Amino acid sequence: MDTRRCVLVSGGGSGIGRAVARRFAARGDHVTVLGRRPEPIAAVAEEIGGTALVVDLTDPQAVERACALLPARVDVLVNNAGQRMPLPTEPGLAAVADHWRRMYDHIVLPTVLLTEALLPRLARPGGRIVSIGSTAGLRGNNAYGAAKAAVHAWNHTLAARVGPEGITANVVVPGYIADTEFAFDMVQDAAEHERRAAATLVKRVGRAEDIAAAVTFVASPESGFMTGEFVNVNGGHVLGR
Ligand code: NDP
């Protein structure tokens, strides 16, 4: 019998998700990585001996189809997938409305839809749901921060809903993590990168591996008394401002 835990990592083909997938696999777990582009997730799955599953997590029907292919029992769900939308370039309220809707679709829906679809399969007791938030969800950054704040708020209700069945739900809240596609889109000049490092108490930017370490701890069998929580991993940036 296969006693390895079954771990799902959305957005596991790059950045934080790839580091998370590698870390679980190194612990001996079987990891399925999900994403829209086939190549990055196939490469990670091959590297770690896991499985790749192509899905656009903003699309409810696609999520249902993909989840039907997953194992009957899931031990750990890591809701990491998310995409920041560019600010509107057109003037007018229609562009503002479109930007806010798209941000919500691409940050909130991947987490909520995948969780809802997988809830019946989560191990009871012992299941772990870890969602990736953002310091932007604590103190701004426009529609992106507001969408991440929605994920933070949603997690509390989720934790209350699944807690009686022995499942935990927590949010790992990263600060600026430099070695990701997301960060590359956001911060392309060296001076801004240095400014972000200087704003932390440890005087460096974050790495995907910093977040992966926190995620694997929160998802460990030993963390069963920890739920509805926010685990801030930002080098003291929020305090150090
Ligand atoms: P990446 O862009 O490297 O990773 C995001 C991953 O999510 C990609 O692999 C992408 O793959 C996948 N993804 C995005 N949208 C969807 C979707 N609709 N369906 C399926 N997969 C999707 O950036 P990060 O590693 O930085 O981002 C991971 C998470 O961390 C995000 O939620 C982000 O908001 C959060 N975060 C990042 C911070 C940073 O500084 N880097 C700081 C705080 C939070 P594909 O495009 O192939 O679908």
Query: Judging by the overall fold, what is the CATH architecture?
Result: 3-Layer(aba) Sandwich
Which molecules other than protein and nucleic acid are bound? NADPH dihydro-nicotinamide-adenine-dinucleotide phosphate
**CATH class identity:** Alpha Beta
Q: Determine the strand fraction and express it as a percent band.
A: 5-15%
Mean pLDDT score, rounded? 95
- The total of beta strands comes to 7
Give a structural overview.
The chain is α/β, with parallel strands linked by helices and about 240 residues long. The protein has one domain (about 5-235): Rossmann fold (3-Layer(aba) Sandwich). About 45% of the residues lie in helices and about 15% in strands. The chain has 11 helices and 7 strands. It has helices at about 15-25, 40-50, 60-70, 95-105, 110-120, 135-140, 140-160, 180-185, 190-200, 210-220, 235-240; strands at about 5-10, 30-35, 50-55, 75-80, 130, 170-175, 230-235. Strands 3-2-1-4-5-6-7 form a 7-stranded parallel beta sheet, sandwiched between helices. Helix 2 links the parallel strand 2 and strand 3 (about 50-55). It is globular and about 50 Å long. The N and C termini lie far apart (about 50 Å). NADPH dihydro-nicotinamide-adenine-dinucleotide phosphate binds near residues 36, 80, 134, 176 and 182. NADPH dihydro-nicotinamide-adenine-dinucleotide phosphate binds next to helix 1, strand 2 and helix 8.
